């Protein structure tokens, strides 16, 4: 599939430079020039250079013309690579405006050439410019001024948006810091309370130990009382002894009865 060639998404380029005159016009007035490069549509670039005084130059470059330029200077790669190289050369490279010849009517230059070099040793891009005069020049300068204002306004709006976004982020960051500080204070308070409660928990062990000792003592006392209750008392032991001693008495009484009865029988006889 063939690569689509055009200038979609081409951002306007504004730059300032001074004109270099050829030797015959070395003493000419060197006013700064404002250069403006933008896409007329997807297949054409418009290049404007003006000093808002005597000189205004313009050149409309088409895609086929740029392809020929690409072949002449020997830049390989894709079309997108070439457009990127062109933009870099015009925006951050060394850009010069070379003027030559002289018009007797207004002492202006007859020819002008825009040369852009991205860096030393790389291919040089060059465009011959056509002079614009009279009302056409006024229209070109007016359009350039309006475009420059719109570009500055756009940049200003972007800066404002970035500043507002930064302000919102700073507000969120400040809220998070306050929230973190509040949580840290709560954690510190809980840590302080836990440290204060720690000794009390140790002293509270003493009553529990004492109560355990008392409980053990009560248990021992209860067991001893139970054992003592199970043992016979002194009175009980005496009664037991008396009962044991009374048994022979009864037996003796029976013996006496028997003996008396026997003796009686004996006497009767």
UniProtKB/TrEMBL annotation:
<feature type="compositionally biased region" description="Polar residues">
    <location>
        <begin position="225"/>
        <end position="241"/>
    </location>
</feature>
<protein>
    <submittedName>
        <fullName>Uncharacterized protein LOC103722222 isoform X2</fullName>
    </submittedName>
</protein>
<feature type="region of interest" description="Disordered">
    <location>
        <begin position="194"/>
        <end position="269"/>
    </location>
</feature>
């Amino acid at each position: 599939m063939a690569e689509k060639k055009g200038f979609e998404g081409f951002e306007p380029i504004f730059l300032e430079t001074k004109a270099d005159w050829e030797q015959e016009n070395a003493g000419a007035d060197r006013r700064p020039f404002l250069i403006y490069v933008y896409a007329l549509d997807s297949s054409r670039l418009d290049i404007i250079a003006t000093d808002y005084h005597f000189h205004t130059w313009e050149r409309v470059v088409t895609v086929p013309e740029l392809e020929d330029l690409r072949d002449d200077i020997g830049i390989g790669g894709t079309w997108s690579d070439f457009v990127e190289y062109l933009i870099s050369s015009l925006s951050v490279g060394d850009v010069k405006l070379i003027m030559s010849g002289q018009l007797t009517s207004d002492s202006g230059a007859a020819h002008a050439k825009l040369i852009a070099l991205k860096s030393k040793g790389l291919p040089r891009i060059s465009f011959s410019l056509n002079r614009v005069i009279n009302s056409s020049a006024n229209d070109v300068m007016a359009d350039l001024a309006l475009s420059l204002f719109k570009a500055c306004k756009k940049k200003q709006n972007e800066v404002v948006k970035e500043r507002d976004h930064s302000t919102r982020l700073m507000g969120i960051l400040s809220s998070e810091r306050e929230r973190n500080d509040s949580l840290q204070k709560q954690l510190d308070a809980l840590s302080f309370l836990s440290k204060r409660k720690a000794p009390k928990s140790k002293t509270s062990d003493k009553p529990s130990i004492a109560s355990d000792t008392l409980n053990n003592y009560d248990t021992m006392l209860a067991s001893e009382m139970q054992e003592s209750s199970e043992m016979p008392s002194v009175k009980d032991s005496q009664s037991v002894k008396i009962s044991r001693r009374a048994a022979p008495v009864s037996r003796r009484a029976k013996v006496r009865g028997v003996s008396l009865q026997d003796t009686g029988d004996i006497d009767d006889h």
